[in-house]
């Protein structure tokens, strides 16, 4: 009967027997000059008569920057939006935690920035594994986002003349990052949330808070709804619509320890994957270089320290191995400012993947600092001497406070200790230029898709992409879909609804029925460590094969030993965790397979077998200049390659020296 | 460290609750308060007992999901969110009382989880600037004096956790409402809706059953983001001039 029997672990799926299927191509981006493609696409898109829009129901899952912006905008245009979030309020989506800023090619600084340069930087920063058409559109739309947010009252940092302030951010040499102290994500999200709240109050958006999507309903080959669980009552219900938009964020929590919010999870995109949406580049995960190191086994999550700190902080470790002196007692000439030494042009501002790997290298050499030697210093002594304490406090005060609260150390007098942690996932559901997945009528926006960041995301680009997708890209492309597609109503007694609901319910019952002796968190920690060790900052064939062998064993153990008290018909947070874990096991396997098959290094994906003589990532364009879109089969997956063509930015080995 | 916890357990909004005592041991001072509760919950699960339900998400002090009354204080002894409260602020052998937010407008959902959707409805009544997507003028078309931008930001930092309501003897949401009214009303972009915003939001606040403000000031003391009490004075001025 149901495919959850494969979960029960008797015959683990042989992911290694994957096959290569037909290539896949983006057929939506118009041809012609890249600067005109988005205009052309919008012009060629079908429109829906304003009077007809209210007859269309659109489901939006997630209320972060992408989902919040999309829900508000679609409702403003007249669609009837049905929106879901698992939090108690749409304002709590994890976009709220983004600290540093949002990029836009405004060139307010007159420092040589342009749409072309933002496009160029993003394609290069992504190590030539993103689609040019998409990235160019992102750069174009970036300028409109700032206008929109200012109109909403987002309190960006301003100069004394009343104009907007900007700063530079990792991996670029222009000052194009707009910010609101260290809480840019919060302020942008509140802007979207307020616009969404206005539409909820007006009755144009029907909000289901504390409700989690657990499956996708596909009827006649089109996405027509979702099955969701009310997290308070446990009730499983189907919701129907003419299109479904997933804005459910990334899957970094598969690692257990990450900078993601505890409840961010992969279930919505994974269930959509199982219903036919291809999953692209799952191994492209971003490890952020500046996080607070873990303090012990009790650690439940990792906290990011904004990358903006690298503008003024200097990163160093002792020159000597095993030097345990307090940092203040290590003289200047016995310190190794390794980023400034290896990358003199960019220094402490190299992209995230490079900064993270460099930290790992010095720690692996035995020069790491703090407990377990898993840390490097981020030192503000020079900045305080140069700018004064007050200026440093004005820029980074809240971050310093947060650091001190967590570590009980004062970063004004003792250098911060930082270490890389999982932060963002560039991979996600494969989408075309219209942000539509391989399931017609199913769209994926924001971090949930794979589209714009290639193998590495530049700082301050996630907020840009989330809002670009939600405010400006999805609304016209969704119009086009609804304008072109004849959709018959799906009757409430359609057998597919009952079937999917039964599958969802059965799975929860199976979890509850095991009544074993291990908690969901204990399995999640073990899976996370396995992934961090073998599919983290550095990957090699032996480690990935080990993980691919171990994950099915761990999954089988889960189905023998998981323990979840209580029932499914109530608020049951342990059940929520266990249910998400079932999807993490499968996703983890696909990540490892993707990482194994891509035997090149690129961006955040570093295969130790593919490095330049000086240890940098070595891409192999002739073999791997493609996005890997994986098709779910229930057995070994099928790989569909989307060839990436670079007509405007010529692929070169990235150099930040 | 070893601790005794007395935690409010309540099955649902219509069932009576009670304080239940638990002991936890081996607590590290580097743990956050929520990680300490995680430790307890792991033990409860293995025993087959219902773990303690509490809201939490980002665990870095910004999403506003977490919040409990710890030894009678909203978010506990430090001025921060519960997730950023660390066990180094407690002593070995302490007995700690843990209760949900207590306010008429926040019904208990289960254990330490309460329903704060009334705050969302206050925002929906006017806590926005009407600016449909695509309609915005160029960002630099209107300069905003730095003082106004900074004042707006100071109030926009509110995370909507509800600690102000929980700390207030009247269960008032004045500080929460003030934070949004001041944020938007001091900006030139917010000026056209200035009067209707404050009237509608204050009306919604009253309709949701929040108490009145008697200038006790507990709200600003409990606020993890330091929203200033002067915000309430500004709210009152905005209301009077509307």
Automatic annotation (TrEMBL), chain B:
Record GO biological process: aerobic respiration; respiratory electron transport chain
Domain 4Fe-4S ferredoxin-type, residue spans: 149-179
Molecular-function GO term, any one: electron transfer activity
UniProt keyword annotation of Membrane present: no
Xref: Gene3D superfamilies: 3.10.20.30, Alpha-helical ferredoxin
Superkingdom in the source lineage: Bacteria
Cofactor(s) listed in the protein's UniProt record: [3Fe-4S] cluster; [2Fe-2S] cluster
Sorted UniProt keywords: Iron, Iron-sulfur, Metal-binding
PANTHER family found in the cross-reference section: SUCCINATE DEHYDROGENASE (PTHR11921:SF41), SUCCINATE DEHYDROGENASE IRON-SULFUR PROTEIN (PTHR11921)
Record family assignment: Belongs to the succinate dehydrogenase/fumarate reductase iron-sulfur protein family.
NCBIfam families (alphabetical): PRK07570.1
Name of the featured protein: Succinate dehydrogenase
